[in-house]
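From the pipeline queue, job 12 of 40. The input is one protein chain; the requested action is below.

Action: predict structure.
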Amino acid sequence: MDSAGGTRLSRNVHGFRSRIARSHAAGLAAFPLRLATVLRYDGRVIKRSASWLIRSREHANFTYELTERNREHLAWWVSAVAASPIDETREYIQELYSDKELRSHIEHATQASDRRRLADREVRYGRRAGWYALARAIKPSLVVETGTDKGLGSCVFAAALLRNGRGRLITVDVNPESGYLIDGPYAEVVERVIGDSVTFLREMDESVDLFLHDSLHTFQHEMSELSAVRLAAGAVVLSDNAHGSDALLVFAQKTGRRFFFIHEEPQDHWYPGGGIGAAC
């Protein structure tokens, strides 16, 4: 076929598609393409889900790495929240990933725990890299975290405080078996509290520089924590539930604070990712 014939064929095909697109049959004609798009996406999710079921031991609070692109987004997010230079926040995130002592501690503490069959030995920080970078950037005197779980986030905060050479962390959880990763040098800057977070925050007589809600993820409970915590001037408030609840957004609007949000992009994991909200 010569070039003129090819051009005529291309125009005819385009004209046919154009007529179909404007006809009553457009939805039906597009269905196979739409189905193929959905199947490609679902196929990737199913493949990753099957791999996770075989390789992972986790049943909650999933851990994963972020995509390289998302880690760059996280650095810019921290830079905006903390009003710190972007090169500095990038360095803080890289600092966490280069911390061999912290990684080794978490690996060994996980293996030594009687709950090791419900935890992966491989250390994956995900959005907690943002927690670390924020703690390094704002250098808080007091960090309060509600929802300790196994203590991965607590150790990340503790590592940042130790690097800062100042500050301490109070982590609160109702589960007496929580926090099993908090040991060694990291325990030196961490106070563990077992009990109801709202009750503890109401009775607390210290001002908090960096607060993280990561306990019961309901709007009502989160708002109760935010209403109870005593915040220092210029404090940063974080919510590990901002992808599922607007509590921190509402709190920020009511109290005249700025609100920031970033969503995770997990690398090679079926979970679509959580997010961090910040009010400051």
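Job complete. Strands lie at 142-146, 168-173, 190-194, 208-213, 231-239, 259-263, 275-279.
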